[in-house]
Amino acid sequence: MGLSIGIVGLPNVGKSTLFNALTRNDVLAANYPFATIEPNVGVVGVPDPRLDRLAEVFHSARTVPATVSFVDIAGLVRGASEGQGLGNRFLANIRESDAVCQVVRVFSDPDVVHVDGRVDPADDIATVNTELVLADLQTIDARLPRLEKEARVDKGRQGLLAAMKHAREVLDAGRTLSSEPGVDRAALRELFLLTAKPFLYVFNVDEDALADTGRLKELAALVAPADAVVLCAKVEAELTELPDEDAAELLASLGQSESGLAQLARIGFHTLGLQTYLTAGPKEARAWTIKVGATAPEAAGVIHTDFQRGFIKAEVVSFGDLTAAGSMAAARAAGRVRVEGKDYVMADGDVVEFRFNV
């Protein structure tokens, strides 16, 4: 089960620099709009220190983290919803992503031209949101007349019709659907509306701003209650080139306990309501991605559909209990390993062995 996050924003805000750091790829990062024309896709491992500890306990030959797919999408400009710039292609690429990560420029650099001639984070956020809202209004207006006819003869379509009318009111007021708690996003899923996707924000700041807690709080408040990460893309790029020890030293000198990229992967999981469970043995220690609230059979199905179809039971121990005991044998002796059935709801960090028969 993958997680695809589309990285969007105005031109020259640092999207490609961030993507390069995420994937350690040399995507063109140029000082002009639309340096990224076709979307660049990179699959990134989610940092999880539990895996290394699990590998020690099970003497695993390798570790396999959960992954996130990041899609670096061409810069948006005013009028994208009307086809300006790379408008139609830009919007189509967002539509294919599970979540939207908007990179917002806060850094000051006279050598990197801002498309509007000034650095104004709040205005940039409003520009991107406005274009996505206008695109969603076009989608709804194109579908609404036909749906009204369908709903008159098919009562099953009335729920979608009500959800669409409510969504239109929200969009008309200039608000994104993901920011409005009362919107029935599940009913609207078939429309693939852009602003109904989960949003998170990355504020790309100057290096010296990383230690300015007051400024960081101001930026987070601009997009609350959406999740936000504040980082310096140039620093993140530098961190990827350093040995682990030197990278940790650089982070500490900046008053940071973890990299912005690690925060982004973690917050991306939270934004989409995802979590991980763990499996381990001599070959590998591995993290598997599931939705929060997934049952044991659903979690088993992520490994293989046969596991879900023939599910019998799951032997489960929490990561904390297992590592405190030091081994599965010791955890069993301490009564920490549980046998769970089909109704068990998985918890983040469960270490599991499935029993099945097909």
UniProtKB/TrEMBL annotation:
Highest taxon in the source lineage: Bacteria
All residue ranges annotated as the TGS domain in the record: 273-356
InterPro entries recorded: ATPase_YchF/OLA1, Beta-grasp_dom_sf, G_OBG, GTP-bd, P-loop_NTPase, TGS, TGS-like, TGS-like_dom_sf
Any one GO cellular component localisation term in the record: cytoplasm
Matches recorded under Gene3D superfamilies: 3.10.20.30, P-loop containing nucleotide triphosphate hydrolases, TGS-like domain
GO molecular function: ATP binding; ATP hydrolysis activity; GTP binding; metal ion binding; ribosomal large subunit binding
Domain OBG-type G: 3-251
Cofactor dependency: Mg(2+)
UniProt xrefs under PROSITE patterns: G_OBG, TGS
Stated name of the protein: Ribosome-binding ATPase YchF
Species for this entry: Candidatus Protofrankia datiscae
Organism placement in taxonomy: Bacteria, Bacillati, Actinomycetota, Actinomycetes, Frankiales
